[in-house]
Amino acid sequence: MNPLTGSSTTFAELRDRAAELASAGTRRILGITGAPGAGKSTLAMRLVAALGPELAAFVPMDGYHLSNRVLEELGRRPRKGAFDTFDSWGYASLLERLHAQAAPDGDPVVYAPQFRRDLEEPVGSAIPVHASTPLIVTEGNYLLLDRDAWPRARAVIDEVWFLCPPEDTRLSQLIARHIRFGRAPDAARERSLGSDQRNAELITSTADRADLIVELADPPAELPPHIA
User: Fold this and answer.
1) Which end of the chain has fewer beta carbons closer than 10 Å to its terminal beta carbon, N or C?
2) pLDDT, tens digit, for every residue of 155-178?
3) Cβ(191)–Cβ(141) under 8 Å?
4) Which ranges of the chain would DSSP assign to H, the alpha helix?
5) In sequence order, what DSSP letters do the residues of 78-126 get, joined into one string?
C-alpha cells in the first residue's frame, strides 16, 4: 500500500477544531476514518472526553457489524471487517436521525448500537444520545466509501478526518489488538497482512474525499484495548 502523508497535527489542535463544531449552535457530526489500526476510536474517545458529555457523544460505526450468524449465512464470516459485512443502510439511517434530532420535533433520546469486542458481536440500544448534545463524534472504516449506503451517511457528516499514522505504527497497533482479543501472534499477523490489509487499501483509496488528512503529532504513549 502506498504511504499516505497527512499534515502533522497535535491533539490540542484537533480538540479545538472539534470544539468549534460543537459551538456552532446546531447539531454537528464529526467523522473520523482511516485504515484498521490507525487509532480512530482512541482519537474519537479522547476528543469526547476532552470536550465533556455536555458537548459531545461518541457513536461508532462498529455497532452496525452484521452478526456472526448472518455473516456465516452470507458466506462472509472470513471477511469480517470488509465494507459488505456492515449494515450501511442502518448506519446511514442512524446518522440521519442524529442529524435531525435537535429539531423541535426530534427524538429526545436516540439509542445507538455498540460493538462488543469481547463478544465479537454488536449489542443494540447500548448508547443513549440526547438531543441537547451538540456534537456527535463517529468513527469507522468506510465513511468515505462511494457505494451502498455509505454516501447517505457521509451526506449528514459535517467533517470527516482521515487519520494516517506511519504504516509500521498502524500495523503494529493492529497486530497488538488482534493478540489482545485472543489471536495467536502468527494468526494476528496473518490477519493484519491479509484481509485487513485488503480493507486498508480500499479505505486509503478514499482519503482524498476527507476534509482533513492528519498524522497525530502527539499520540498517546500507551493505547487502550479499543484501538481502532
Assistant:
1) N
2) 999 999 999 999 999 999 889 988
3) no
4) 11-22, 40-51, 68-74, 88-100, 150-155, 167-180, 185-193, 195-204
5) GGTTSGGGB-HHHHHHHHHHHHHTTSTTS-SEEEEEEEETTTTEEEEEE
Residue type, 162: F
Q: What span, in angstroms and rounded, lies between the C-alpha atoms of 29 and 138?
A: 7
Question: What does DSSP say about strands 121-130 and 109-116: parallel, antiparallel, or unpaired?
Answer: antiparallel
Q: What is the pLDDT of residues 111-127, one digit of tens each?
A: 999 999 888 899 999 99
CATH of 7-216, one of 3.40.50.300, 2.40.30.200, 3.10.20.310, 3.30.420.40: 3.40.50.300
**Average confidence (pLDDT) per 10 residues, the chain, 228 residues:** 70 98 96 96 97 98 97 96 97 98 90 92 96 97 98 98 94 88 86 88 97 93 46
CA angle, 32 as apex, 11 and 121 as ends, to 5°?
120
Nearest to 143 by CA among 127, 165, 156, 160: 160
pTM: 0.92
The amino acid occupying position 2 is N
- Cβ partners under 8 Å of residue 199, min gap 6: 35, 36, 81, 82, 83, 141
Assigned C-alpha cell, 206: 478514499
Distance CA 173, CA 166 (A): 11
- List the chain domain ranges: 7-216
Report the C-alpha gap between 32 and 225 in whole angstroms: 18
